[in-house]
Specification:
about 375 residues, alpha/beta, Purple Acid Phosphatase, chain A, domain 2, 6-stranded mixed β-sheet, 7 helices
Amino acid sequence: MTLRTLCGIACLAAAAPLAAPAEGSGSPAHAVAKPAAAQAAAPSAGGAPAVVPRSLELPKGKLFVTDPVPDVELFATGDVIGYIDTCGCKLQPAGGISRRSWLVGEAHGAFPGVPFALLDTGNFTDVPTAAGDVRTRTLLESMVKLGYGAVGIGERDLDLGYDDFKKKIEGIDMPFVSTNIVTQGTTEPVFPPYAIVEADGRHGKVRIGVLSVVRYNPLWQKAGPAGTNLAIASPQAMIERYVPDLRGKADVIVLLAGIPKVDAPDLARSLTGVDLMLDAYGGEFSTVQEKAGSTPLVYLGNQGKRVAENRILLDGSKHPADIVTYMHFLTSAYPDDPATKTLVDGINAKISPTTADAPKKAVISIPGTEKN
């Protein structure tokens, strides 16, 4: 039984109790529909009306709506782990870069002149086999074509160390970011600690600052460059270190994260100056608007099954005044982009499901033992 088969079985077992109703189960026709705004419920004990969180689901039967028109359209994915096609789940196979491509294309057609940004939290790497490497490469190249502006570096992406990671992304024209993966024994980031994504639109240029963190794990280490080791520093400390610098360079600051849901709200609550936190870990996904303290927090799911569409409305200073999020669950109701579908089908045809590739071995550098 292959690792991807096991992953598919786990997906089926884990997704069933979590799955939200499938968005867009009807016609893909457009409609102008307002988001499910927070509504007044029965008065609380203090007399003030309770607030019902805004749902992230699209109106029934719709795959895309055109209201509100955003000042910035931000799509986010994460923890895709090499899935270029659907997840293969028995009940409701979802995901795939061809459906993702269709969705992004619809948004571009609906919102001419609106700045777009696409971000991914990382853990994009498939299993470490020859077939897995092909899927990883195909996924990254497809993300470049879609226009991804920045990608986080996840723990999984570094399983085989720094040199393997650099080989994996060679020739891929996207910024890869990690704020808290550092050289062991220091707090110096090994990769760029943030990126600034610039997007031109009807209100001029909008600058999006992007940070990326993984969960703190003092036992984690991987081979780094030039005989060093990689380690993980405190997410909060590293975010606090770079936000002030980034605030002067960006209109909107987004934090990409690979943090367990049990820890993510505490981290979000501790942040100052971060406008949106996008988290992908363990398959958790949001169904309603969430905030931890003043920080909006969206859980993205995994395996590419869901895409968070974040419509950012700016104030007069080009800082976020509101963020309306729709969670697209990419079931078969979503059409495929034909060119991307042809590409994926061709890749799948070349990869034999019976190929028993031996996994590559992880590498940990031991200082003082490296060869000259």
